[in-house]
Amino acid sequence: MLSELRLNKIQGLLAAWLVFACAQVPASQVVPLSVEQLAARAQRIVHGKVASKTCLKNERGEIYTRIELDVIEVWKGPATNHFVIVQAGGILGEERVEVVGQVEYRAGEEIVDFLAVNSRGEGVSLGAGQGKFNVLMDEKTGVARAASRFIGHGAGALTLENLRTRTTGGQK
């Protein structure tokens, strides 16, 4: 009986501590950006296929991921057939560095990415990964569709052509 009482008291104290600890942690929030906002902020917008993904260490010993993109079409920025996207973190041997909220890139996937450009000319996806749209073929209609974390799902489904039009103002 006594040990059960102690256990209940300990559980109560742990629960109270957990509530207090959680209340002290600042929350971070990502504000969804519209296609037009992404396009206005982007230095480059590329439509392509992920050719490869490699994890490396920079000169400071930090792990980062390098994504090689075979470009299908450039919607904003200089024309090219190859582009590099980088992001912090990745898995290198036994080391793993994760960045909360970051999007995943997979070899072979087709994407449209709204990008800032770093000092080395590499792309960085905008809006905590909001700039990355996956492109998938709708098997029923044969129409390519694009969706990001916040845009292009359900009733707001986007065709690839609609995304291009909203991004470029109808320019090809």
- Per CATH, which architecture? Beta Barrel
Radius of gyration: 21 Å
Give the class-level CATH name: Mainly Beta
As a percent range, the share of strand residues is 35-45%
The helicity comes to: 10-25%
Q: Indicate the low-confidence ranges by residue numbers.
A: 1-26
What name is given to the CATH topology? OB fold (Dihydrolipoamide Acetyltransferase, E2P)
Distance between the termini: 77 Å
Let me know the average pLDDT.
83
Main beta-sheet annotation: 8 strands, antiparallel
Class by alpha and beta content:
alpha+beta
User: Shape from CA axes?
Assistant: globular
| H-E string | HHEEEEEEEEEEH
Number of helices: 3
Give the count of structural domains. 1
Strand tally: 10
What does this structure look like?
It is a single chain. The protein is α+β, with helices and mostly antiparallel strands. The chain has one domain (35-168): Beta Barrel (OB fold (Dihydrolipoamide Acetyltransferase, E2P)). Helix content is 23%, strand content 37%. It is built from three helices and ten strands, in the order H-H-E-E-E-E-E-E-E-E-E-E-H. The protein has helices spanning 2-24, 35-41, 160-168; strands spanning 44-57, 63-76, 82-88, 90-92, 95-97, 110-117, 123-125, 132-137, 144-147, 158-159. The strands form two sheets. Strands 1, 2, 3, 6, 7, 8, 9 and 10 form an eight-stranded antiparallel sheet that branches. It has a two-stranded antiparallel sheet with strand order 4-5. Strand 8 (132-137) and strand 9 form a beta hairpin. Helix 2 crosses helix 3 (160-168). It is globular. The chain starts with a helix and ends with a helix.
